[in-house]
Design brief:
Layout lengths: L3 E7 L7 E6 L7 E10 L2 H8 L2 H6 L4 E2 L3 E9 L11 E4 L2 E2 L5 H4 L10 E2 L11 E5 L3 E3 L6 H5 L1 H11 L8 E5 L3 H12 L4 E6 L2 H9 L4 E4 L5 H8 L5 E6 L4 H10 E9 L11 H6 L4 E4 L7 H11 L9 E6 L3 H10 L4 E5 L1
Parallel strand pairs: 11-12, 11-14, 12-13, 14-15, 15-16, 17-18
Antiparallel strand pairs: 1-2, 1-4, 3-5, 3-9, 3-18, 5-6, 6-10, 7-8
Helix pairs in contact: 5-6, 5-11, 6-7
The structure holds zinc ion (ZN).
Amino acid sequence: MGGKMKAVVKHHQGYGAQLQMVEIPQINEDEVLIKVKATSICGTDVHIYKWDEWSQSRVKPPYIFGHEFSGEVVQKGNKVTNVEIGDSVSAETHIVCGKCQQCLTGRAHICKHTKIIGVDTQGCFAEYVALPSANLWKNPKEMPFDIASIQEPMGNAVHTVLSGEVIGKTVAIIGCGPIGMMAVGVAKAAGAAQVIAIDLNDYRLNLAKEMGATRIINSNKENPLEVVEFLTGGNGVDVVCEMSGHPVAMNHGFKMVTNGGRVSILSLPLRPVEVDVTNNIVFKGITVQGITGRKMFESWQQVSALIHSGQINTRPIITHHFSLEEFEKGFDLMIEGNCGKVVLQP
Ligand code: ZN
């Protein structure tokens, strides 16, 4: 296609990012060029923006970051058969090898050689993005672009909540950032009897309530262990979805889960976390799961259907829209935490 485009570039090894004019990417025969219509800011992007320890060890500036998006196919390589020009698409952000034991046995989400779009490759905080066609997910024409852009994180929520039984269960969602809010909606749609949302931020807890939480707990104001004990008649919760990454909150999760329950961990604590394995895992006979990415493409199918059918109303989760040029406002909000999902519209 040629020409220049606007892009938010992680331009240096330090805080922040820069809006730059860069070349529109060229595609190869297996790739597709997409005009980005909406792109949402993920916690991972905030790590990269702030240039914390994790991003220092992982990403290599200068490059375009961002990985959650929806857009329109404007050009496709000779070998691409799964999408047409004009299709609305989003993308699975894990680029997998297709050859390792995990990929070959239907578990590509835990591929040994995963590369992440916008972390290890050029991302979508731009007017255009070039991606392997194998990663694309076709959206229904009538799905609004901003909603379509948040399907990727919602896939994490679906993967976490639905990695075990939910119907009739008491579910605690610890950490109510956007994925936690989505997890509340998923647990509710899946028939949970009680959905208890726990966080330190009232703004986010109120959004969790809007998404269907039956009880919200601000751990600064109430002791979550005491409240859960009361709400469950002393039994504890059946399912904990850990989305905070905070060692204290995580330990609350292990303490509040009932014997034989499940703790599914999506969060990424910055440091090793100490847990009482003897008393809180072994003697309780619980299942602990690490959750990474989305099942390809089972989680996508579930997300798309849950949104499309109206089983989950994702509208409350998107609290702010900005132009690409206003990306700094979006990041400031994300850092401060008084927001749900922030969407940039190139
Ligand atoms: Zn693989």
